[in-house]
C-alpha cells in the first residue's frame, strides 16, 4: 500500500476506514513515537471496550513468530475483529543495524537504565554471534563496546550483572522474516490484523519490501545525526511532543522554558516526557510553566556530543569550551579523546586560514552570504583542494617510486582538504568564517603545543585535565585573527 511518515500519520488516521486497514502494519523508528502510533492504530481498529479480548500483545524478544501466527489464524471468540501487536520485533535486523543498537545500548547504560540497555545489548550479541563469556576478551568485546584505557566502560559490568541476575538470554537467530512473508502471501482471516513495532529496520529485507507493497509502514524514524537539518528535525519532534503533553495537561510553557528544557534533555523523548510530567505536577493549578520552574525542578541530563565542544573551540567561546569539556569528561570521555578532537579542529582551521591568506580576497570574504559562497568561492576551494592533492601524489611518487614488475600502491586519500564532500558546501563555509577568529601564527603554534601536550599526557604524571584546560584558555586569549 504505502509508507506514511509519522508527522502525517494523524491525518491518515482521521481519514482511514477500519474495514480497509491492511492485514500487516509495520511501525518503525523512535520508541516513543512508535508507541503513540501503535496506540492510534488500536484506537482506530478496536473500541476500548473490546480491547481485553480483541487485542493480543507479544514480545518480539521472547516469542517466536510461529506462536504469533498461530494466534493470528485463530478466530476471536466474541468478535470478528482481532489485532495482534508484536512489540520490539527483530525480524528486520541485520548486520547493518549493529551501530544503531550500540548507540541505543550505550545511551541507556550511561543513564543507569540497565533494563532498557539490556534489549539492544542482547540483540547485538545475537547479531555478532557472541556469548557472554566471550566479552572477557578485549578483541571480541570491541564488537559490542569500546574499551577505555584498555578496560571495559564503567557501565559494562553493571549491564552484564543485570542480564545474569534477571536470567536474560541472548535470543537465537532465526529466519522468522521468511516465515512471516510466506504467511502474508497465504493470507490471514478477515478482520485479523498484525501490527509490528521495531526500532531499527534494514530496508533491503524482502519482508520489509513485502509490507511496503501489500501492507502499511508507519515511519517514526528521526535522524540522529548532528547536521543542521538533522537537529531541526529533532527539535520539531520535541516541540510536537511538548505541545501534545501540555495540551493534555491544559498548560502552557514559556519560550525560554521550552528552550532550556530541550537543551537540558537533548533528543530523548522518554526523558522529555518524564520531565514535563514533573513540571506539570510542580506548578499545580498555575497555567504557565516558567524557566524558573525548569531550573528549580530539573537537572541537566543531556549527553553533549563532542562537536558542541569543538564548535566552541572554533568560536573561541571560553565559557562554552570549559562547560562542554567538563560535561564530556564527567560523562567518561578520556582527555586524550578531547585532545584529538581539538587537534582535528585546529588542523581544519589551519587549512582554512591558509586558503584565506593565499586567496588574498580574490574569492573569499568573511562578509559574504552562504548563497554567494556556494555560487563561486566554493569552486575555488575545490580547485585548491585538487591542486593540493596533485602535489601530494607527486611527492608520494618521488618518495615511493614504482618497483619494476610491481604495481605501485595507490596513495591514501589525504584528509588535508577542506571540501571532503563536494555536495556539502555549508560546513566549508562555516569553517572559513570561524578561521577568521584566528591568526595563522596562533594556529601553527597551537598544533605544536598540542603535540607537546600529547607527550606530557602519555609520559608524565601531570593532570591531563589541567593540561588541556590551560591550553584552551591560552588559545582563546592569544588567537587574534
Q: What does this protein look like?
A:
The structure is a single chain. The protein has 481 residues and is α/β, with parallel strands linked by helices. The protein is built from 22 helices and eight strands. The protein has helices spanning 9-15, 31-45, 51-54, 65-72, 98-110, 114-128, 138-141, 156-165, 176-186, 206-214, 228-249, 255-265, 269-283, 291-297, 306-315, 318-330, 335-359, 370-375, 377-399, 425-435, 440-459, 464-478, and strands at residues 2-5, 24-29, 55-59, 82-87, 192-198, 216-220, 252-253, 288-289. The strands form two sheets. A six-stranded parallel sheet has the order 1-6-2-5-4-3, sandwiched between helices. It has a two-stranded parallel sheet with strand order 7-8. Helix 4 (65-72) links the parallel strand 3 and strand 4. Helix 15 packs antiparallel against helix 16 (318-330). The longest helix has 25 residues, at 335-359. It is globular. It starts with a strand and ends with a helix.
Précis, in short:
With 481 residues, the chain is an alpha/beta fold.
Radius of gyration: 27 Å
Number of helices: 22
Mean pLDDT across residues: 86
* End-to-end CA span: 58 Å
Could you state the order of secondary-structure elements as H and E?
EHEHHEHEHHHHHEHEHEHHEHHHHHHHHH
Q: pLDDT below 50 for ≥5 consecutive residues: which ranges?
A: none
**How many runs of DSSP E, i.e. beta strands?**
8
Structural class: alpha/beta
The major β-sheet equals: 6 strands, parallel
Strand portion, in percent? Answer: 5-15%
What labels describe this entry?
single chain, 22 helices, six-stranded parallel β-sheet, two-stranded parallel ribbon, 481 residues, alpha/beta, globular
